[in-house]
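Quick one, tokens below. Sequence please?
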């Protein structure tokens, strides 16, 4: 046990990036609680601050550097403060020396593969009064049984794979998260059983590409088999998964989503670009025709499905005609929602070295056009739920108005309604009475 002068040590974890990182932060918090720290309400109260970083975009990295500068000032006023830097930024080869040069006051630098070592690294930094850098370049397998401090509520994330083998040409993830590794079905099911017993009802299976789950194991389950096994766990009422790679979304998986009652009718299926030329340059491994055919299959097998996606504009070489293909695909599929991004160079990726980078003003005009189109479709899709009675799982008081409650449909949409906090965790039928771009409004059905 690591004990401070007052006997009560507090931590704060600051997370940047995606849901994988959010979930890693739950593990970081779990590891720190395992050595006696408790969560700090405010940054000023923390004895240890961990930045769990993202390097997918340079803007995220710059935010971290800015924050490190401010934390350096905080540490001057509170010399006992321990600062740790982890996550994807630390995994980049050049980062260790950069931190050493510019941020000597950071006590511990660790990576995405060795979160479990954090207690030892903190102890070493304290004992030796020096900066400790320990970043495993690869995973050395999957480390199981790292404790997690999950957010309270009804939803929980469970990692099923780590890393990625796809090497999309714009993406840094395979370089910092390593080759794809699947957890064993036994360890995943055991974690889901525990979550079901603890009252978590809505489980999201996480990985960079969940659809290729099990391909690195011999004779084990594939992703459809895994969904089926998770579907059998008592206490769990809803199962979701992300992210799916279209190329690996096989017919067996479409059938499993259609057949398994707990698997929700919501699929996040990034398509990135609607032009075959750009898809090829991105190394995405599918064509627009393949993607549209897959969407048709999913829609006919799962009639009320909500589809969401990621779309990138301004990839090197993207012409007006390529962008028109993207707009056309958006119109054809009618996504319920989309995360839209402007392509920005990411040092260390093949796309950063490509000629024909698209000028900033063209990228900006294209994304505005895309957002306008998608917003109209999202509103229309949300409006189509008006008057319907939908099965909703109550998640707790609304984040924006504590007098109201928030619930979620099986399709992943938030429904705000007037109810009571005792309803948290209950499945309730709600009639949809209003809609906006971000959520639906609903009401309880009158008691009979
Ligand atoms: S599938 Fe492509 S975009 Fe997704 S993490 Fe892997 S390399 Fe990156």
């Amino acid at each position: 046990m690591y004990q401070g002068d007052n006997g009560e040590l507090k931590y704060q974890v600051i997370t940047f990036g995606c849901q994988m990182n959010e979930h890693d932060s739950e593990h970081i918090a779990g590891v720190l609680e395992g050595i006696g720290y408790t969560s700090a309400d405010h940054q000023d109260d923390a004895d240890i601050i961990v930045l769990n970083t993202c390097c997918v975009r340079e803007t995220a990295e710059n935010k971290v550097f800015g924050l490190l500068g401010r934390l350096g000032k905080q540490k001057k006023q509170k010399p006992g403060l321990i600062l740790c830097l982890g996550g994807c930024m630390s995994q980049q080869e050049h980062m260790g020396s950069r931190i050493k040069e510019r941020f000597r006051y950071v006590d511990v630098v660790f990576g995405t593969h060795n979160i479990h070592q954090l207690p030892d690294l903190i102890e070493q930094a304290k004992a030796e009064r020096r900066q400790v850098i320990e970043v495993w370049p690869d995973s050395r397998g999957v480390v199981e049984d790292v404790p997690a401090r999950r957010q309270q509520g009804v939803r929980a994330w469970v990692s099923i794979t780590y890393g990625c083998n796809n090497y999309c040409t714009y993406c840094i993830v395979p370089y910092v998260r390593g080759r794809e590794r699947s957890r064993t079905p036994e360890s995943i099911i055991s974690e889901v059983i525990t979550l079901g017993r603890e009252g978590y009802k809505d489980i999201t299976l996480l990985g960079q590409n969940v659809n290729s789950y099990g391909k690195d194991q011999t004779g084990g389950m594939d992703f459809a088999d895994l969904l089926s096994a998770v579907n059998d766990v008592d206490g769990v009422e809803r199962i979701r998964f992300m992210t799916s790679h279209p190329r690996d979304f096989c017919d067996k998986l479409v059938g499993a989503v259609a057949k398994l009652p707990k698997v929700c009718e919501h699929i996040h299926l990034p398509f990135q670009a609607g032009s075959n030329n750009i898809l090829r340059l991105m190394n995405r491994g599918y064509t627009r025709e393949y993607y549209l055919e897959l969407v048709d299959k999913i829609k006919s097998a799962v009639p009320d499905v909500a589809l969401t996606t990621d779309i990138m504009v301004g990839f090197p070489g993207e012409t007006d005609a390529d962008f028109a293909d993207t707009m056309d695909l958006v119109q054809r599929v009618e996504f319920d929602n989309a995360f839209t991004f402007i392509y920005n160079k990411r040092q260390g990726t093949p796309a950063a070295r490509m000629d024909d980078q698209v000028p900033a003003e063209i990228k900006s005009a294209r994304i505005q056009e895309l957002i306008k189109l998608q917003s109209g479709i999202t509103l229309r899709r949300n409006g189509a739920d008006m008057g319907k009675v939908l099965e909703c799982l109550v998640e707790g008081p609304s984040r924006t108005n504590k007098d109201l409650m928030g619930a979620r449909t099986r399709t992943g949409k938030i429904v705000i309604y007037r109810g009571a906090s005792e309803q948290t965790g209950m499945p309730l039928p709600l009639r949809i009475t209003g809609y906006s771009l971000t959520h639906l409004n609903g009401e309880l059905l009158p008691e009979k």
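The longest strand covers residues 389-397. The domain at 10-134 is CATH 3.40.50.12160 (Rossmann fold).
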